[in-house]
């Protein structure tokens, strides 16, 4: 029970410490806010640089596409008369379909008239009929490119596509690029024009800027909204004739952009922005090319050549991003105040800790008794001090039969007993050891146990006790071994199946390569086995296969492997053979063994064996190819044998 004096002492300690701490927290909150804002700024700048990199890569691809089209073989073929305009239109359509970003690809002749135009409509490029082709001689992309030297491109500002003098709906922001076309003799023949759809490019650019719920935007050089404005603001000058600019709604942000600031915070939020000069954008990606660029014209809006790309974090979003730091400081403050309160009640806490410790000891004892797993407590020498009922149920030893004996008395083998010291040393060094051991029950039978040994140090005496927890996994081990056997052995003959055979072949060839000896692979196919099945049935055929498998196994050496690959096909791995002669001798022994009559009930059945032989590494150094080679040689021998005898199966009753 806390008395009045305890409460007074509590307040004397609590009040000044709390005041000092809250002052420190306030300073940390201010500093943490600055650090977090710096992190947000760096993240936004990285996202902005990433988006600009995307834009530069796209423009580099478009410039490359334009030069490729202006110098393509198909254009040369049309100019030289070896190809027609339909073929050129097909090439433009395929190119447009693969790229997916060009609204139009056009070829203009020297008079500025469209010779070929491919439109990209609804995801399907198509050639515009000849009657709908237009005269583009007054357009800047023709006038400025028609007399330009080879290796020159023209690039316009971004604007909305027009058809017959009207803005196309829905709106299609485009950037037009053109390049002159020359034949192989250097004579000028026209201009290739690309209408690049700006919308998907802008979408890729702003996608990287959508970080932490930021609002990306694209502005022209005068601050007009191209992307990211509110309803009615984007492309307002083109669509309504009245320009709505960022300075009309966000004057502080626009003023900071004009000053060249790239990261700044104003009343409307936090901004990361960069002004993109189209000349720098192109030259940065084409510095290694001999490339001349014409930028826009007097008739075009020059403000659409240079753009502002950026993102804004609104004030409410920014506050949410800064809030986790403030929340952490609040939690720390509450935790510290809680610790002060705990310190003021030290005696009560100590007493409570003693009660809890006593309860934990009783709880641990109850858990020990209730556990169905084996639990053994031993001293630092490994002598058993205590066991639980689960130990008795698992091993058959009563507590008085186990206490005082070393842990090793349970181990089934001398090696396991001798390894106990190493196990205890490992548990002492690492705090815990886990593994599987083979133990012996009181009745003498063996069992496998999954054992976890924990080393617990007494802080008062520095003595170490060991707690061994064991789980009987004998059934699990037996099931695992049986599953492995079933997965790797043939159900009929009990021999290794193809899977295990191929694994052993890999191992044998690996050893042979390392040790410098040879491995013989014998591929065996029974001759005359099908008539046995047809005449006497599959039951007799199965008995024949089992007998053949036993004979082959009894013929080869103990360390060799025989497997049934399927049907009436067998294979043998003869390891460490002295040469081809020894391998052929093994094959002859197997063939002779197989050909002996097989007695089943009153039947005497004879089958033969065609054997293909391949030797590693003399014949082949790859196991798959080695198996294929042996198979091929087996079929060669079978064809030879069939030509000499039409029936290798005989049975008498």
TrEMBL record:
Places the protein is found: Membrane
Pfam families, A to Z: GGDEF (PF00990), HK_sensor_dom_bact (PF21623), PAS_9 (PF13426)
EC supergroup of this enzyme: transferase
Coiled coil: none
PAS domain segment(s): 360-431
Record-annotated membrane-spanning stretches: 329-349
PROSITE patterns in the record: GGDEF (PS50887), PAS (PS50112)
GO molecular function: diguanylate cyclase activity
Superkingdom: Bacteria
Gene3D superfamilies found in the cross-reference section: 3.30.70.270, PAS domain (3.30.450.20)
Entry EC number(s): 2.7.7.65
GGDEF domain segment(s): 517-652
Primary localisation category: membrane
Endpoints of the signal sequence: none
PANTHER family, sorted: DIGUANYLATE CYCLASE DGCT-RELATED (PTHR46663), SLL0267 PROTEIN (PTHR46663:SF3)
Listed name of the protein: Diguanylate cyclase
Species per Swiss-Prot/TrEMBL record: Thalassospira aquimaris
Lineage: Bacteria, Pseudomonadati, Pseudomonadota, Alphaproteobacteria, Rhodospirillales
